[in-house]
Amino acid sequence: MMFSTLTVMTIVLPKILQTYMMEISKSLELGTILMN
User: Fold this and answer.
1) Residues 17, 19, 21, 27: is their CA dihedral positive or negative?
2) Can you tell me whether residue 36 is helix, strand or coil?
3) CA separation (Å) from 36 to 6, 7, 19, 30?
4) CA angle, 1 as apex, 5 and 21 as ends, to 5°?
5) In the prediction, which pLDDT does 22 show?
6) What is the rounded distance in angstroms from the CA atom of residue 23 to the CA atom of residue 36?
7) Is the dihedral of CA 26, 28, 34, 36 positive or negative?
8) d(CA 13, CA 7)
């Protein structure tokens, strides 16, 4: 059970982080566009 949880974490977490980072970069780009 512990192993499967670990596997899920290693597979799912990077995807969540990637999506999160993409959203942040989009927000930052929007922010810079609005600021200019």
Assistant:
1) negative
2) coil
3) 45, 44, 26, 10
4) 0
5) 96
6) 20
7) negative
8) 10
**Looking at the whole model, is its pTM more than 0.70?**
no
Give me the amino acid identity at 19.
T
Residue range 1-36, pLDDT digits in tens: 567 888 888 999 999 999 999 999 999 998 888 887
Left, alpha or beta for 9 (phi > 0: left; psi -120 to 50: alpha)?
A: alpha
pLDDT for 1 equals: 59
Q: Look up tokens 């969540």; give the residue.
A: 16
Q: H-type helices in the chain, by residue range?
A: 2-35
Six-digit token string for 2: 């512990």
